[in-house]
Specification:
With 182 residues, the chain is of the alpha+beta class. Helix content is 18%, strand content 36%. The chain has four helices and seven strands, in the order ββαβββββααα. It has a five-stranded mixed beta sheet. The chain has a two-stranded antiparallel sheet with strand order 1-7. The protein is elongated and about 70 Å long. The N and C termini lie far apart (58 Å).
């Protein structure tokens, strides 16, 4: 993906072989490059990149640290989660006409005519994939969710188990009744 002038390019042509460091800041301006991503708001992530350049390949070590905003999966209240990712990418050059090289998870192939790496899409994917599978409002001192009660009532998820005092899901209650009837 090429987004000219986005500030997330890593220009490697002209760099000597050896180690080089780069730094990027991901915030609101960064997320504005990706329309329709309101679910990931209030981004404050720092990316440090260490590039080790060789004749026909480069090794990149990325360290992402900071926080990102999202919404509670139960009540949609705004929450923050930590972004703490370290990943190494190997970039190899390939001659023109060599179509056998396909990008893999941590291995990128680029044409020997390329002069830069556009990292915006990679940064976006890393931030999005660093979000935990489920994000909920924290629990209070008694272990009860601090989610918005009005939203929970609206969704029908606020039923409490009378015996244990914990939150239950009505779908599971129906299945428990079936089990008890056997």
């Amino acid at each position: 993906m090429s987004r000219k002038g986005n500030g997330f390019r890593l220009e490697f042509v002209g760099l000597n072989e050896g180690k080089h460091t780069f730094s990027y800041s991901l915030g609101k301006d960064f997320m504005d490059l990706f329309p329709g991503t309101e679910a990931f708001s209030d981004l404050d992530v720092h990316v440090s990149a260490e590039l080790e350049k060789h004749e026909r390949m480069m090794s990149l070590l990325f360290r992402f640290s900071g926080t990102a905003g999202t919404r509670c999966d139960r009540c949609l209240r705004p929450l923050r989660y930590d972004v703490d990712v370290e990943e190494e990418i190997i970039v190899k050059t390939v001659s023109e006409g060599d179509s056998g090289a396909l990008d893999e998870e941590n291995l990128w192939w680029i044409s020997e005519k390329e002069t830069f790496l556009d990292l915006a899409s990679y940064f976006y994917e890393t931030v999005v994939l660093s979000r935990p599978m489920q994000v909920f409002c924290p629990q209070d001192g008694n272990g009860n969710p601090t989610c918005d009660p009005a939203m929970l009532d609206l969704c029908g998820l606020h039923a409490l188990d009378r015996e244990t005092g914990t939150e239950t899901d009505p779908r599971w209650d129906a299945l428990k009744k079936l089990k008890e009837g056997i």
